[in-house]
């Protein structure tokens, strides 16, 4: 049998061996035909075979992003990005400029990634600054952590939010001294706005998904876990995904994880209906807590700058505890958002209860984020078979290490133990890596760089933040490929370069194993092959 495509390089990383080797990858149709060491590929070559030689450039399996809010990630690529705003006023004006330049002059104005922590006064924004430019159009702006929403008066009017609107469970409507809503919504209260702002027609949703896939192809992302629950419900229409799949439009494999607290009978129907090589519904997801920067992560010891505050639950944790055994019994893997050490323990307890009741099965339950962890809970990941799913870029929450809020909210001792990546990798036996896009960009080289160096963008702190938790290049890349594939039970099909696996391959413009770590962040993808087809070429 002759190959359709042969990729040749002095640096082929198969996600098995600890170092790349000179060799080639031959594909036929949508499968890998042969992974060879050395340059003797002639037996696989015909006159029709495309041969691409990349000298010392790194060839590896496509990246598998273990944690993406897919539709919101597409919106992140579509609507205004406010990450560079230095003040509330500048952010509002950036939104105005984007709205003026957009073809759509009606309906909702949407934006992402503003963060008051980066602003000079560090104060939360209010509706008045948006009302100045948008007296008639509703505005919904999601913050950098995706755990808060800034809205204008028109948006509040559409949502029916007044001074008499009660705070929902697990959230808060910010109010002024007179009790009037200010325009900022914490955690689950965000859903009061987003359930109106994030409503799209099937064609609009397809446009957003295409934007996500375009960016994913440029980054070498060939698989993703779509964690769908947001504060107003599931984000992402499975029928739209399926329609794109049937029309051969999907250039990324989607592993959708709808709401754990939804109708499991319905999800079982989805699991049977949406099961192809590119679309799966076999996981469920929910939030246990928020994030420590806003004191909403559940912690075992009180916040250093907020005595008596131990965080909040964003959902009815008793409902989650009861739902997990039933999900486990039905063969659904569960993903639990956990940023605090208390919520991590709760999640492990819930999984242990399910396993004790129904026994171990093929489920690959996960704790998502694992920013904090009590040392006594670390070995439970291996004992219970739980996947730690992490996003190293969150280490660099701020551009400068001196502006890092974690030592303030957690205290230096706890802050120095955050993101225990190496401990999880060594102890759990497997680690999954993703981006959490749109909280950060889904550029995998940011995640790799951060996992290897643990530095902020200013090069601080010297030696890296908690340097004993650094990962090697091998460990990061294996986690970003095999680890994520293992997390969704597809390690026999994806995640390594091996004969018979899907031909999902990426070529990087430098060998990440040999360059100085400082160069990793500047790496680019030269070629992305997904399902045997070239979907991006630089």
Features:
Diaminopimelate Epimerase, Chain A, domain 1, 538 residues, globular, Amidohydro_3, Metal_Hydrolase, six-stranded mixed beta sheet, Amidohydrolase, TIM Barrel, 22% strand, hydrolase activity, acting on carbon-nitrogen (but not peptide) bonds, eight-stranded mixed beta sheet, alpha/beta, 25 strands, Urease, subunit C, domain 1
Outline:
This protein has 17 helices and 25 strands.
Structure description:
It is globular, with a radius of gyration of 23 Å. The chain has 3 domains: 5-61 and 500-537, Urease, subunit C, domain 1 (Roll), CATH 2.30.40; 72-197, Diaminopimelate Epimerase, Chain A, domain 1, CATH 3.10.310.70; 284-487, Metal-dependent hydrolases (TIM Barrel). The protein has 538 residues and is an alpha/beta fold. Strands 1, 2, 3, 4, 5, 23, 24 and 25 form an 8-stranded mixed sheet that branches. The protein has a 6-stranded mixed sheet with strand order 7-8-9-10-12-11, with helices on both faces. It is built from 17 helices and 25 strands. Strand 14 and strand 15 form a beta hairpin. The longest helix is centred in the middle third of the chain and has 18 residues, at 341-358. The protein is 30% helix and 22% strand.
